[in-house]
Amino acid sequence: MAREWLTSGADVHQAALRVVARMVAKGLDDSAIRAWFAGVASLVEKARGEKRVHELLGRELDRMIDGARGKYAASESTDAVRAPLFRTFTDLLSSARAPEWAIDGIAELDSVGVLLAESGNYKTFLDLDWSLHIAAGKAWYGRAVKQGAAFYVCGEGHGGLARRLTAWKIRHQISDAPFFATRREVFIDDPVAVQATSDEIAGLAEQIKAKPVMIVIDTLARNMSGDESATVDMNRFVAHASGLRARFGAFVLVVHHPGHTEKTRERGAYSLRGAVDTRFLLTRPEGTELEARLEFAKVKDGETPLPLTLRLAKVELGIVDSAGVPVTSLVVNQVDEVEASNTRPLTAADRAFQALREAIEEQGEILPKIAGAQRVVNEKTWLKIASRYPEFCLKNEQSLMRQWRRAKTTLTDEDSIRGKRGWFWLHRNSRTCPRTDTVLSVRTADTPGGPYRGPPVSAEDQKPAQRREVFRA
Prior knowledge:
Elements: H1 2-7, H2 12-25, H3 30-39, H4 41-48, H5 50-56, H6 59-69, E1 72-74, E2 77-80, H7 89-94, E3 101-103, E4 107-108, E5 111-117, H8 123-136, E6 149-154, H9 158-172, E7 179-181, H10 191-208, E8 212-218, H11 231-248, E9 251-256, H12 271-275, E10 278-283, E11 291-299, E12 308-320, E13 326-337, H13 348-363, E14 365-366, H14 368-371, E15 375-378, H15 379-386, H16 397-413, E16 417-420, E17 423-426, E18 430-433, E19 438-441
Parallel strand pairs: 5-9, 5-10, 6-7, 6-8, 8-9
Antiparallel strand pairs: 1-2, 3-4, 10-11, 11-12, 12-13, 14-15, 15-17, 16-17, 18-19
Helix pairs in contact: 2-6, 4-5, 10-11, 13-15, 13-16
């Protein structure tokens, strides 16, 4: 009977669910269920095709087994059969699979990722571009995609969404695709709201006979009713986002903003960072227009891909506004890999090192009892110069001092700088800035030409300085 269900009938997926449910109800373990399906693979292949058998014996089967164990086995059984808490070594080995990609090498199926970007960094254009390429089954700039339905939980920007979709349609000449967007925000941390959304996704997927491959939550803040800084609320959000992943085996992407001081860290509770499988960082390089940089800040398994440069283009939509001006929108138009040496933005420690170099060149003093022939500056002067940079131009004094202490500790621990009684000087010849691969060079006492880079030391400079107030962080 079970073989007939799989080889005949309109929907093999529903037939497989029924077979798995009955096997779970009879007490078969996961290995036995997989072995039975492997045994009927040739029959199913003949009736359904090779591709369908491959999908049925992969992660799709694993999800069916997990789902059956968490619910009632089937209508033939009234007893709930739940999965044992522990899995055996053999069972774990039998479930090993090669990665399955929503976007080859970038976004894995059955995973949760977070896209971190400030406002205005083109994050919506990127997540829409990913979603629409998947829905259309169109390779993403040379990277294969898993074609399927894409669902966009839109918490903001509803007015501009249609214009952006129109621009993408014009650019890629695609007339239709299984892409769906919500009319309003959905509070993912609310179990009732997320269950209703999950059920609607399942219903639409069944209606169009397409597997959900990507689910975008844009943004976390607009689709969360609780406090994003509270760990308990964030844990609830993460659990429900992971529940969407588990139900559909899709790639779930959460779009989020960075913190106010640390631009490479998620705003709010830290638990989000630890829970996701992939973290993407999207920034806009200084001095560029219609360009963004995508970095892979976290990849749980496998090698970290090279950063990517995204270039956007304006597209006329074929409509005009009330003044008769053509309406335009943007679309991702080109994607290039970035050299491996160019891997991250300048850190606060990089900026502090630059600031100390500039402070010494502009206001450095020779204090033999402090640092011998080295030019030094007091901490108050150093911080004043550092305030030229955005990392140290913060209105909140507590945040400023916390950032400052971290940068100073980093430079001291790596022996790039040295300090004594509130005075600081450069110890190392250089500090490499990972973002630009630029060496921040300075002269030390061991460097020919003098201990610093700047004008010659005058006799007046070498006189002992009078004692002055010292700024302490």
